């Protein structure tokens, strides 16, 4: 009969053969899912950052272009007014005043237009900030949901592995118990054959021989035990 230490070693080897590959496969799958999730999250963040930078550069470019055009137009008008004033110093005093008033009005209107543009830009920026905040909240929610799904899947796989391990251990225990029962049955059968051979040898020995019945039956008993 094998010792308990050898039985435990055999059970450990069987457990390693049955569960080792499956556990490694599950660990690799979990690692791949986590890497794919982190890569997708990094891609989303990079895309959002690029779009924000593009919008900011566009707004700066448009604002600078508009201010440059306004400054050029203002300079040209001022130069034209000065030329006309030089040429028509006497006849255009009233016109110069009207033009000055017109320029002031135009400047005021342009300042109002610029203020309106700045206000619209501020509103646009505020709306974009709200959308960005909402998108960030949605992204956080998606991240939490994916993490919860990942944890649930990991727990499910761990529970399934534990169940498979228990089933394999129970099957191994049943097999070991069956082998022990078979060994006991064979030992009992061998003892029965030995006793029967001894009795047969005693019955067949002639009366008066020097050998005892037990001595004559030993070879037969030994042969039955070896079988």
Q: How would you characterize the overall build of this protein?
A:
- The structure is a single chain.
- It contains 3 helices and no strands.
- With 227 residues, it is mostly helical.
- The chain has one domain (18-226).
- The longest helix has 112 residues, at 93-204.
- It is rod-shaped, with a radius of gyration of 50 Å.
Question: What's this entry about, in short?
Answer:
This protein has 227 residues and is mainly α. It has 3 helices and no strands. The protein is rod-shaped and about 165 Å long.
Keywords:
227 residues, mainly alpha, 93% helix, rod-shaped, disordered C terminus
Describe the secondary-structure layout.
Blueprint: H1 4-87, H2 93-204, H3 213-226
Helix pairs in contact: 1-2, 2-3
SSE string, helix = H, strand = E? HHH
Q: Count the helices. How many?
A: 3
Structural shape: rod-shaped
Low-confidence stretches: 206-227
The mean pLDDT is: 76
The Cα radius of gyration reads 50 Å
Number of strands: 0
Distance N to C terminus: 17 Å
Please tell me the total number of domains: 1
* Overall helicity: over 70%
- Which class do the helix and strand fractions yield? mainly alpha
């Amino acid at each position: 009969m094998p010792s308990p230490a050898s039985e435990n070693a055999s059970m450990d080897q069987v457990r390693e053969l049955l569960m080792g590959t499956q556990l490694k496969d599950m660990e690799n799958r979990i690692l791949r899912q986590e890497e794919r999730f982190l890569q997708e999250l990094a891609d989303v963040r990079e895309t959002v950052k690029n779009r924000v930078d593009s919008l900011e550069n566009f707004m700066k470019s448009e604002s600078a272009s508009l201010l440059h055009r306004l400054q050029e137009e203002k300079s040209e008008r001022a130069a034209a007014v000065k030329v006309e004033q030089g040429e028509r110093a006497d006849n255009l005093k009233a016109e110069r005043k009207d033009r000055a008033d017109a320029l002031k009005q135009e400047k005021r209107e342009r300042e109002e237009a610029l203020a309106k543009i700045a206000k619209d830009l501020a509103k646009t920026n505020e709306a974009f900030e709200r959308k960005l905040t909402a998108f960030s909240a949605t992204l956080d929610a998606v991240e939490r949901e994916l993490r919860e799904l990942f944890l649930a899947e990991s727990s499910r796989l761990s529970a399934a592995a534990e169940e498979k391990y228990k089933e394999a251990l129970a099957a191994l225990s049943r097999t070991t118990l069956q082998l022990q029962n078979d060994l006991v049955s064979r030992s009992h059968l061998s003892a029965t054959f030995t006793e029967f051979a001894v009795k047969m040898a005693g019955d067949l020995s002639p009366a008066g021989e020097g050998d005892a019945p037990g001595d004559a039956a030993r070879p037969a008993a030994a042969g039955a035990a070896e079988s």
